[in-house]
Structures are given as C-alpha cells and as structure tokens.
C-alpha cells in the first residue's frame, strides 16, 4: 500500500532592499519588526508572563496516528463504497449542508485493517473528531501521556481494553480513557465502527 505524500509550498525569499531607501527606512529595517522591539521590555523580567501570542496548541490528533499505524491510500472502489455508506450514515434534508467524505479522513492501516481519523476541532487543551475502525480493525495498544479521552460509539460494537480491564460497548454508549493508561479498541463486527472522541489536556500539576 502506498503512503500519501504531502507537498510543502516553496520557500519565499524576502524582497531585497533597493538603493533608493532613506537613512531612516534602512535603520528601521535593521532594527527588525516592531513586535520584536515591543518584546524587549519583557527580557528584563524573567518571571513576567509573555503575551498570549506565545501560547501554542499542545494537543494534536497526530498523536493518535503514531506507529505501528502506517499511512494508507484508499483504493477507488473502497473510497466509493465508503462514500455511499457515509451518505446513509450522515444523511440530511437540509439544502447545502456539508457532506462528510472519505477524503476528509486521514487513513492508516495495521495488520491489514484500515482506520481513519477526522479532526473537527484542534485548539489548545482540547482536540476532538471522529475515528473509523474498519471491519474487525483493532486500534493497537497505546498510552496517551498527555490527555484524557472520552469516546462515544455511533455504529457497530467495540471491545475496549484499559490496562487489564476489558469492556464491550454499543451504539449510543460512551467510555473514558484516563491519561496515562494503556488502552486498545477493537471493532467486533464487519460493519465499520465510528466513534466520536474528545481529548482533554490532563492537569500537569496532578
């Protein structure tokens, strides 16, 4: 199976200064952007909190896709069948409503079975979306050292192992995996299992 490729935009070279700039203009350029100048006042105070622009997202769905999962490109026939199933699962009578398609998922495989991830929200301490487990797919054992995750099952039935405790869940039921605990999820049927998930950053002070 082929892994997908990502193309990065070419690096943009900054414009070169011409010879017609005034002395003040060249001096300003050498001083750097004004945002850098404004931050100089914070350098004298090590204990002072920096502006919120320094804050960045700490949770990423990419954590869920770590090895042994490997990237997968869906075959055209599989993609068409999945798209038809999606239309039935998320059907709507509202005009111009968004349509969920297989292309919106990032696909991986493990032991010959497929798993897909779609991100709905990824912001700071919260990350949520959907996971699709193919027929009899087992999401391999994994420990989330960053977040507690809540899952809600939409289709099929799954077996969930958290540490040494094993439970079964059915559509409409929810379960939680605390931060720092090993867990795996197995689809028990030939029907794809769709789960909604929400990851919440664990309190590092605990």
Automatic annotation (TrEMBL):
Residues 125-198 form the Mif2/CENP-C cupin domain. Residues 1-10 have a biased composition (Polar residues). Residues 1-30 are annotated as: Disordered. Pfam families: CENP-C_C (PF11699). Coiled coil: none annotated. This is Mif2/CENP-C cupin domain-containing protein. It comes from Dicentrarchus labrax (European seabass).
